Amino acid sequence: MTAPLWQASPSVPLLQWLARGPLKQNLLQGIRLWVWLHLLYGEAGQDLGLTDPFTYADWRDRFFSATHPTGEKKPQHADARCPCNKSAAAWLFAPALHFTQTAWQSYAEQHAAEVQAQMAAFSQALQAHDQHPEQLERLLNTPLFGMTRRTLYGDLRNLTSISWLTQRGQSFHRVTDWPDVPQQNLTPAMGTAPESSFITQPDLAAIAENLSREMGGDRRFFVHVDYVVPQHKLDRVDDWQALLSELWQQHPIPPVQLLYQGAGYTEPVSVVVYPVCIYYFRRGPYLCAFGAVPQTSPRQLDWRNYRLDRLLNIKPLPWTHSTVPPLLRHQYTKHSLPQPDDIAIRMEAAWGFDYYQPAQRLLLRFDQAWDDRYIRNSMRHATFSNVPFAQVQSLIRQQLQGAEQQQLLKVLKQRSPTDAYYTAMYREHDPNVHQRLRACRPHVEVFLPWDLRQRMINEVRQEWQIYGLS
Predict the structure, then answer these.
(1) pLDDT at 112 over 50
(2) 27, HSE (Cβ side, Cα atoms, 13 Å)
(3) Is the per-residue pLDDT at 152 higher than 80?
(4) Cβ contacts of 428-431, under 8 Å, gap ≥ 24
(5) The model's pTM
(6) 183, 186, 340, 403: most buried, per Cβ within 10 A?
(7) Residue 281 to residues 199, 225, 232, 304, 354, Cα–Cα distance (Å)
(8) What is the pLDDT of residues 290-334, one digit of tens each?
(9) What Rg, from alpha-carbon coordinates, does the chain have?
């Protein structure tokens, strides 16, 4: 690379620009992207031996220690030499980026006055961004790279969106022409890029960031989503998101008691849960929460989604309150409460928003014309893939036995070998997947799972009773 080494210090305007949104919520991301730039373009990264193009796995294997786990979950290992255990403060205030966490702790003890002065200056600079000292101390003690694979891969995507990297497929390339970055004397707002990291589809997020500004006096990018929240409940939704926003800025985040009128409930139910995030999915905003499950034993903990307009009340509770489930309180004391990334990992594992339901194998048949027009080369889910006709029979034999197996094999013989077959993992009984399949009728046939096939057969019979007599 012919470009000079990256040497920029972590100024507040620079971190604001890198944070892709308010520093109050995204400070760690801003610091982490600053470190990324040193690793990709600075002296600190020269020992990595990273060559272009590189994948996330290439960087991971060179950056972390040999003991670092390669799975989807947050790393939980006690290797003090691994960078994933190094706090944000160690990255920011150590004399060199190559310091390990152990070396940083020793340095901080020997130079306590100097480190405290650095931290005080940093804290003062962030006061304009509403960073409270106690929150800042907690953030700076957080392992900066102790994140899930999805989060760190998202960092690379963020660097791509602000022109610090280019991407082809799963590979990334460094750039020789660096983008302009905010200088020390810029006001925070001047360096702020459009915040679209909440969009879970990276390509759509990039479109939003590139086209969200007016061009020639006109807006050129619009998004329309199905939104079924009735007009008279919009104030309630606003109230709940405002309350949850306040709770998520507290330390610790408290559990809440929900009063919820679900679509399938005759009476409101009350549950105590830990609120994790708000997720818009297809028709409206949902609170994703972990804790007690409605209409089950209070000792059973699991995830559930609660549509905001159906919430009748949200009451924050102290962690010592008698109604907080003991197992949930135990997770709080052990610092093992779930995180938003846990939801993302579950949703990647199987198709459907009911990410807390068991996953099942889905096998679908589409007629050739429908496949040519709408299915082939489209993205439905990470697990959604084409199955050659020659493999369909063996897949049925693997999933079914006895009379059910023989019946479905007989059906298969009656189908055209030119039809298209697809398999995916999906969440059992997920209504969103069911609606997607219904929208494709009569061009789709569910082969597996057997119970879903029978459900679709019954629905078609009911429809024939409606339309067949007209």
Answers:
(1) yes
(2) 25
(3) yes
(4) 428/354, 428/357, 428/358, 428/359, 428/360, 429/354, 429/357, 430/351, 430/352, 430/353, 430/354, 430/357, 431/354
(5) 0.58
(6) 186
(7) 11, 10, 20, 14, 11
(8) 999 887 766 789 999 999 999 999 999 999 999 999 999 999 998
(9) 26
**CA dist., res. 235 & res. 423, Å (int):** 42
Q: Which CATH number fits domain 231-335: 2.30.30, 1.10.1240, 1.20.120, 3.30.70?
A: 2.30.30
Residue 195 has pLDDT above 60, yes or no: no
Tokens of 151: 């989060």
The encoded tokens of residue 447 equal 């082969």
pLDDT of residue 470: 54
d(C-alpha 49, C-alpha 216), whole Å: 45
Three-class DSSP labels, the chain:
CCCCCCCCCCCHHHHHHHHCCCHHHHHHHHHHHHHHHHHHHCHHHHHHCCCCCECHHHHHHHHCCCCCCCCCCCCCCCCCCCHHHCEHHHHHHCCCCCCCHHHHHHHHHHCHHHHHHHHHHHHHHHHHHCCCHHHHHHHHCCECCCCCHHHHHHHHHHHHHCCCEEEECCEEEECCCCCCCCCCCCCHHHHCCCCCCCCCCHHHHHHHHHHCCCECCECCCCCCCCCCCCHHHHHHHHHHHHHHHHHCCCCCCCCEEEEECCCCCCCCEEEEEEEEEEEEECCEEEEEEEEECCCCCCCCEEEEEEEHHHEEEEEECCCCCCCCCHHHHHHHHCCCCCCHHHHHHHHHHCECCCCCCCEEEEEEEECHHHHHHHHCCCCCCCCCEEECHHHHHHHHHHHCCHHHHHHHHHHHHHCCCCCEEEEEEEECCCHHHHHHHHHCCCCEEEEECHHHHHHHHHHHHHHHHHHCCC
Condensed to tens digits (0 to 9), the pLDDT of residues 244-302 reads: 988 998 889 999 999 999 887 888 999 999 999 999 888 889 999 999 988 776 678 99
Tokens of 144: 């900066």
Question: What pLDDT does residue 12 have?
Answer: 82
Q: What pLDDT score does 184 carry? A: 44
Q: Categorize the per-residue pLDDT at 185 as very low, low, confident or very high, splitting at 50, 70 and 90.
A: very low
* Domain limits, the chain: 12-191, 231-335, 359-467
Predicted local confidence at residue 186, as pLDDT? 34
226 residue type, one letter: D
CA dist 21 → 196, 340, 399 (Å): 8, 17, 47
